[in-house]
């Protein structure tokens, strides 16, 4: 018990340290798409990607429980990164629980979530989930006798930071993405074209051949599936953007395409195993119903039309980690990687291994206890 | 039909004009409580207050319907102000439908709502409703084929105003109140003490005797009943603030106290007429159930303890305009004053008439068609 109390104190100090620099707002650094940066297969090696989904940093910030979960999540990521030694990391949304972050600067928690990857000098890309720019939800108990806990804004009102820091508006997708991009040369995240707004994390990255940095081995597409401050959808304009971009850079569908977004599309419901996961599906947990996007506005038709599409990867459902075939490609869940967010299923991450010549896409789940499972070949 | 089209065009131009100055954010002018300003009964006259509730300016801003309703609401207020010629106007919350205002600067619509009063040089005070700083709710249809309508933010991204104006965060209570206070010397609105935050519109105004500007005839208390970006409650701290303020400035309960907030407290449910409004209640419409605050954290007990409290006035329920006695004072609804917001009941406003010597508080409803009804004496 004494040990635990000691830990709590440490966490309280940590929380305090994290909350102190409230004055500094998210720096809005506008960075052009990653010209000059390149993702390239290393000679004689595969290209390995680790996907972390649903980390939910910043949950319950005003208790000791929340910050403790973030420490656990950091440990999970650190362990998995040391185990798998990936070439690239994808943060597949719900990096934050922004609805629990009672300060404008959610980027502090974003930085925490990215630190295991950054510390190991591994490049990354991020796509948003529905909790990343969610509105702050006020706990009703703060309005009864207990009042607002010590991290409250009223203490800020009298500070030199000015009363207008006292707005619980959170940090927008645009601010968060600018922060991510500007935070390190390791960030391969991008802001999408302006006409896709309010949807922000829409972009494509090329993985180049070990022989020739101009020659693409695969294209990774990131799409923002919305939620939080706006509806949980991939819009018609996004579907059109995917289509025109893919037509432009890969007109003959020669290069394999791999797709990443946060909230499963409605197509996931049509392939979901009922109960036990049997072949052709591959996975270890199927503990809840697919919670899909609110509507389907054409992205699935656009994917179906391209023989180069290999698989779609989503998070969102913490209790699902399967892959199932859908028409000519695969629909996969990741795995709950964080201690934040609902569910106590053992944490893990999905790994993708791309082989260059001949092209293959292999995947498995890597667990916080070091075990591996659910190996599957996803290439068509 | 031609006439209507012409009107629509005029409204479109108006909308455009209103949306153009998006670059200018709400000016944050910090103004001290209204020292030097005074509300005083005119010699040989009563002191007349008109209450406008639930105007809902800025509703459906992207259609022609919404701006048209605002024009109707402006007409209602202008007519009533010319008819009643009040000494003071109270804006009793839901001045805006902020959840329909897709720009940061909700203060543009706030100014529109205040203009009939301002134009007539009548002083006013405002208290917030649950829609005044609500989060913007994205219409789902904007994500399908139709896309975001022409007032969309994407056009702003490329403007000189910078991409960060492209946040649909709305305007906070604090920003709105600073704007109101700074907009005119006629504003008697105040920001409440910082420790009541996020609740902002909490303050007390004194009406002075015609003989002696130091001698109070009545105290008007304004309380923020929350909602929108945080729960719909009057908190424990607010109740304590009311209690200590009233004890301090009116220790012997000699001066009558009149209370204003937006969302009915749960006590309203206990006195609500079922069906027809019979005595001792007085009113003309009882068309819906009382939609009360989420919890009761002590404000009613604080009011009950003071024999000086005469009545509480709320809005929120557009289909209710009754007053009913509750313990030693009255609980009153106003009347839907605006064309924005639900319900098509004929618009009106509640009038209060304070007589100085002997003190009396009379009230009635004044309608957009010029009729008056539901006269009632509210003084104890």
Account of the 3D structure:
Two copies of one chain form a homodimer. Chain A has 380 residues and is α/β, with parallel strands linked by helices. The first copy, chain A, has one domain: 4-Layer Sandwich (Purple Acid Phosphatase, chain A, domain 2). Chain A contains eight helices and 13 strands. In chain A, the strands form two sheets. Chain A has a seven-stranded mixed β-sheet. In chain A, strand 3, helix 3 (107-119) and strand 4 form a beta-alpha-beta unit. In chain A, helix 2 (65-84) runs parallel beside helix 3. Residues 1-35 and 152-162 of chain A have low confidence and may be disordered. Chain A binds chain B through residues 28, 30, 135-136, 138, 140, 142-145, 147, 153-154, 157-158, 163-164, 166-169, 172, 174-175, 194-195, 197-198, 226, 229-231, 233, 235-237, 294-295, 297, and chain B through 28, 30, 135-136, 138, 140, 142-145, 147, 153-154, 157-158, 163-164, 166-169, 172, 174-175, 194-195, 197-198, 226, 229-231, 233, 235-237, 294-295, 297.
